[in-house]
Design a protein that fits this description.
Blueprint (H helix, E strand, L loop, with lengths): L1 H19 L11 E6 L14 H10 L4 E3 L9 E3 L2 E6 L5 E6 L13 H14 L10 E8 L2 E6 L6 H4 L8 H7 L7 H4 L9 E7 L3 E6 L14 E6 L3 H9 L5 E2 L4 H8 L4 E3 L3 E10 L9 H10 L2 H8 L4 E2 L21 H10 L6 E8 L3 H14 L4 E8 L1 H9 L7 E6 L7 H8 L14 H12 L3 H18 L2 E8 L3 E3 L2 E2 L18 E2 L1
Parallel strand pairs: 1-10, 1-11, 15-16, 15-17
Antiparallel strand pairs: 2-3, 4-5, 5-7, 6-7, 8-9, 9-10, 11-19, 12-19, 13-17, 13-18, 14-18, 20-21
């Protein structure tokens, strides 16, 4: 026992030394914001990466044409970022954007219409990440160097809401660094070409990512601001907790619900608890028996112990889902998820699932509540004759398995967040059969496709709402996933961090660094 304790002390001592070792020798007066994060992004290319680890980088280095005012998420609070103004034609087909003249890419050039055109065309051509957002665009035209025109194939009501996730990339940087016809995808995996308040300084795989404040940032810098953001890879929640207690971090993203309760009682820490758009899902492989039968997928939904998850595991840090959309969304009005083992047993019998059938559920190391959720599901399925093999893997491995049909397990457990306050950004992106979103997991239904396509382009609000109600009901029947609970933010911040403001589009995965300072 003494040997184990000594080893733990050695590990923590090494971790502390590692955290203190900033790249180079930062001046004592620099304001350095140290983030303890459980995952590194696999790919920070804004045309590819769309997960929470990537969001932490995009929040610093890239900017869109327009965004939501900080702390808001609706269409009435959109403001220009790289665009200083915009107008929409009466027929809803043409969007014209005038660009700011005082903006610089980190490499020094001024963003212009060609950069906007190239960025959107690049996203559409690559077809990954958030490519659903520019998908309605039929034609892009550079009117003059600082004016660009986007023409849609047909009117698309939530088009402006999607633009905050379309980041503008330097076309010069892409052309300079592309290999063959890869559109610089290899280079942009661990490099950036943005205009954001921070510029990427260092990307050490498996260790840390460093961003320095960009002196020439177009908004300017207040007297109190961050000079550097360091994202340290600290996968274990217990290690994050100890390091935060020891003053070796300003923000930890992976603290267990029980430990958050303890930190919330202390004056030297801030624990956030805002409602988010994020839902933790069990994603089901509809192409893999026995989950290729919708009756079995519905049985899985009925088997999960929702109340136990929210009350015992999350300690009240979450709410009961009502279908596949988070609270506050159009048509988020379905019946709450419920546990009914008797109905689940009946469906499994009807589907002919034999006792002793084994399925595999995968989760990512780091978030202990995810492990507990999978264990809860396994315990609930055992009396129903389903044996569960639990696999904990690094996030990058889970991501790889999710996007490769040959490697997909029966289920994996992970969160998914809408990109905008409109249902289209989640339902179409995630459940349409042509989706290449990583959590789609191979699901597709032509009838659901048809409804989702009609809904995204419907101009009449009442008809659009009715179509989304139909889509929700159809998804309830098809049951491609199990919404286990709606998340709250669970940021643990040191008490001397100032300027934090929750931003719904960042969900629970990122923070607006530009507004922060350390007292």
């Amino acid at each position: 026992m003494r040997r184990v304790g000594s080893v733990m002390l050695l590990v923590l001592a090494c971790a502390t030394a590692w955290l203190l070792a900033a790249p180079g020798s930062a001046a004592a007066e620099e304001s350095v914001f140290l983030v303890l994060t459980r995952n590194q992004p696999r790919n920070i290319d804004p045309a590819v990466g769309a997960d929470n680890p990537t969001r932490k980088i995009h929040a610093g280095v890239y900017e869109p044409l327009m965004d939501h005012k900080l702390g808001t998420a609706d269409a009435t609070n959109l403001e220009g970022v790289l665009a200083k103004s915009w107008k929409v034609s009466p027929d809803g087909l043409t969007y014209t954007f005038a660009l700011r003249e005082n903006v610089k890419f980190h490499a020094g050039s001024t963003p212009n219409g060609e950069d906007v055109k190239h960025s959107l065309e690049r996203m559409k051509k690559i077809g990954l990440g958030r490519s659903w957002a520019p998908d309605p665009v039929k034609k892009l035209r550079v009117v003059n160097p600082m004016t660009v025109e986007l023409v849609l194939a047909r009117p698309y009501p939530p088009f402006l809401l999607g633009l905050p996730v379309v980041f503008i990339v330097s076309s010069q940087a892409v052309k300079k660094n592309q290999k063959g016809d890869d559109l610089a995808q290899a280079w942009l995996t661990q490099n950036e070409a943005g205009t954001g308040p921070f510029r990427l300084r260092e990307f050490k795989v498996g260790e840390q990512i460093v961003m320095d404040h960009f002196d020439a940032y177009w908004r300017g810098w207040p007297a109190k601001h961050l000079d550097r953001v360091i994202l340290k890879l600290v996968a274990e929640p217990a290690t994050q907790k100890i390091l935060m207690e020891g003053g070796q971090g300003h923000w930890a993203d992976t603290i267990s619900p029980g430990d958050l309760d303890s930190f919330a009682q202390r004056k030297d820490f801030v624990v956030t608890a805002e409602p988010t758009w994020g839902i933790q899902f069990f994603w089901m492989n509809a192409k893999k028996a026995p989950l290729d039968d919708p009756r079995v997928r519905k049985a899985m939904r009925l088997a999960f112990p929702y109340d136990q998850m929210i009350k015992d595991v999350m300690r009240g840090r979450g709410t009961l889902p009502q279908g596949y959309l988070p609270p506050g969304y159009l048509t988020q009005e379905g019946p709450p998820e419920k546990t009914d083992l008797q109905a689940a047993r009946k469906l499994l019998a009807e589907a002919g699932v034999a006792p002793g059938t084994q399925i595999t559920i995968e989760f990512s190391f780091g978030l202990d509540f995810q492990r507990q959720a999978v264990e809860l599901m396994a315990g609930s399925l055992r009396p129903l004759g389903i044996d569960v093999k639990i696999q904990g893997v690094p996030f990058a491995t889970m991501f790889q398995h999710a996007t490769d049909p040959a490697q997909r397990p029966h289920m994996f457990y992970s969160s998914a967040d809408p990109d905008t306050a409109d249902p289209d950004s989640f339902l179409y992106r995630t459940f349409h059969s042509k989706s290449r979103y990583w959590a789609n997991f191979g699901f597709g239904d032509p009838k659901i496709d048809d409804v989702l396509e009609k809904a995204r382009y419907e101009l009449k609000p009442e008809r659009r709402a009715e179509l989304y109600r139909q889509a929700q009901a159809m998804l309830q029947e098809a049951s491609p996933a199990i919404p286990s609970f709606v998340q709250q933010t669970s940021h643990l911040l040191r008490g001397n961090v100032r300027g934090y403001k929750f931003h719904p589009p960042y969900a629970w995965g990122a923070i607006a660094y530009y507004n922060l300072w350390i007292e």
